[in-house]
Structures are given as structure tokens and as C-alpha cells.
Amino acid sequence: MAASSISxxxxxxxxxxxxxxxxxxxxxxxxxxxxxxxxxxxMVCAVVDACLEAGCERIVVVVGYKQELVRESLAxxxxxxxxxxxxxxxTGHAVRASEHLFxxxxxxxxxxxxxLCGDGPLIxxxxxxxxxxxxxxxxxxxxxxxSVIDDPSGYGRIVRDGSGGFVAIVEQKNxxxxxxxxxxxxxSYYCFDVQSLFGALDRVDRNALTGEYYIxxxxxxxxxxxxxxxxxxxxxxxxxxxxxxxxxLANVDSIFRARxxxxxxxxxxx
Length: 270
Known about the structure:
Layout: E1 15-20, E2 37-38, E3 41-42, H1 43-53, E4 58-63, H2 67-73, E5 81-84, H3 91-96, H4 103-107, E6 112-117, H5 125-138, E7 142-148, E8 157-160, E9 166-170, H6 177-180, E10 184-193, H7 194-201, H8 218-224, E11 229-233, H9 246-260
Parallel strand pairs: 1-4, 1-6, 4-5, 7-11
Antiparallel strand pairs: 2-3, 6-10, 7-10, 8-9
Helix pairs in contact: 7-8
């Protein structure tokens, strides 16, 4: 059962957009990445569970590669909605694939949506609640949850101003030597006002190097519009572990089982 959403007189219960269209080429498997098991179930299930526990009343899963397997892995849930990303053109493109499902929310104020990755099964509902609370208390158009980790290699760095406010997300390949020393990273936990999200995505340019559209471009666009973007160090470092290889998968599975008490491959809890 979903927990009650955080109360705010002008806001509705949040939605969640979960990105689950990728293949995961380094997994040495033909399965979609999010279908690989963690705790005895497809890893995307843990992300859905966290969203429901945090009070999300709508869950939209963006699927693509072998989408039938992702849909099958979520068949035990009721009310899951699916959007299809027909080409792999980046995270911004993936979120835009869900836009038609938010036509009503785009026309009226008061709607929030998390944007999360389906391959992050160590996500906690408590983290999502913390993000949503900051988002609503500050009236932000976008709120990013960050993490401070010992080895930030490979992650986008969070650049703040002298007052601790958000300046930009800088990808590692574009970072200066000073920025590379930043240990606060972007683990891809976002909360957006729905109108602001899709309004900004309409203006995201295709990356000249990769040909993709990135969700990470939206906060800067919103800042340029004079909108508020909040950043909060809310993600425990242990939750940031990436799953890119079968070794990573085994490591995350072990942590997940130790945390949740999952003890068998059926998904039953001890």
C-alpha cells in the first residue's frame, strides 16, 4: 500500500517517471538492464516500490529495448502506465516519450513528478520524501538529490555558488580540473513541477557530441527562466552504486538483500 503523500494545500500526490528503456550493453546479456534480478525480482521493481511507499499515485515506466520483458516483470502491479521510447536518444528524450500521458497535468498547476532511473534498486522511499519536502517547501521548479562520495569518477559533478545554491551539473568529460575535484555528484534523483519539466524539455538541444537529449540540461534552462532550482545532499553514498557489469549486479544484490531481508529468488521476504 502506498504511504500518504506529503501534505501541501496546492499540490497533488506526486507521480513518478521511471526510465527503463536501455539495454545495458556491458551486462553480457540480451535482457533489458532493469530486468536483471536484485533481491529475487527485476531491479526495476525496487524503484517502483520506493515510489509507491513515498506516496506516488501514478507510476509511468518508459520502456524500449525488449519492452515486453519489462512489462512482464511489472505485471503484478496494478495501474502501472507505460510510455515507449522508440529510439535511444538520451534521458531527456526518454522523459519526453511520456509527455502525452501528462497532458492534463501540463495544463494545470500543482503537479510534481519524480524522474528516476530503473536501474537504481538501492533507492529509498525516505530519500524521495526528503526531496519532495524540500521541493514543496521552497516552491522549486526542480529539485535534485545529490550524494557526496569518495570516488566521483564517471559522475556528473554538482557545481554550487558561494551560498551553496545550484549552478550547474557538469559532466565529467566537460569538467575543469577544479570541477573534477568536486565529490558531490548527480545520482539522477530528480523532482520536477510537471509544467516546468516539459516546458524546459521542449528547449533542450541535441548534444553535439552524442546526438542525444539530456535531462541534465533542464535545471540550467529553468534557472535562466528565473525559476528556482533546489539541490539537496540526500542520497546516502551506499545507494549510489552503479550497475554496469555482472560483478556490480552481484554487489548490489548482496547489499539489497542485507538491507531488506530478501533471502530467495522468489522475491519473498524473510
